[in-house]
Amino acid sequence: EVQVVESGGGSVESGGSLKLSCTASDIGDTPYCMGWFRQIPGLEREKVASIDERGIISYVNDVEGRFTVSRDNAGTTLSLQMNDLKPEDTAVYYCAADNPWSCDLGDGYWGQGTQVTVSV
């Protein structure tokens, strides 16, 4: 059974830090393509950061330099270290994973989401 399980999140004041983790299983060959997305109510879901099957990392512009994404050696656990958090980072954060042969996170497997709230 495919599983994508997130942990972390919570509430923090502006300028604070949080770390999210996500573990995926039974998707297929590793390393998994994995990424973090976020959604603010009323807005479309956006990709925050991702790692592809080759280990190439990408970030959305407004988190680069503040967020760091990493994947473990097994290629199944993804972390997102979020520093210098801002109120506009407040959202539900979702982890997505896919096998390395298709690497299509949008059509991949998704976690249940975890709330991140940053207060002024």
Describe this structure in words.
By secondary structure, the chain is mainly beta. It is built from no helices and eleven strands. The chain has strands at residues 3-8, 10-13, 18-25, 33-39, 46-51, 57-59, 67-71, 77-82, 91-98, 109-110, 114-119. The strands form two sheets. Strands 2, 4, 5, 6, 9, 10 and 11 form a seven-stranded mixed sheet that branches. Strand 5 (46-51) and strand 6 form a beta hairpin.
Index terms:
4-stranded antiparallel beta sheet; 120 residues; mainly beta
β-strand number: 11
Structural class: mainly beta
N- to C-terminal distance: 41 Å
Average pLDDT number:
95
Let me know the largest β-sheet: 7 strands, mixed
Radius of gyration: 13 Å
Q: What share of residues is helical?
A: under 10%
Distinct helical segment count: 0
Order of helices and strands: EEEEEEEEEEE
Q: Would you identify the regions where 5 or more consecutive residues have pLDDT less than 50?
A: none
Strand % is: over 45%
Dominant shape: globular
List the helices and strands and how they pair.
Elements: E1 3-8, E2 10-13, E3 18-25, E4 33-39, E5 46-51, E6 57-59, E7 67-71, E8 77-82, E9 91-98, E10 109-110, E11 114-119
Parallel strand pairs: 2-11
Antiparallel strand pairs: 1-3, 3-8, 4-5, 4-9, 5-6, 7-8, 9-10, 9-11
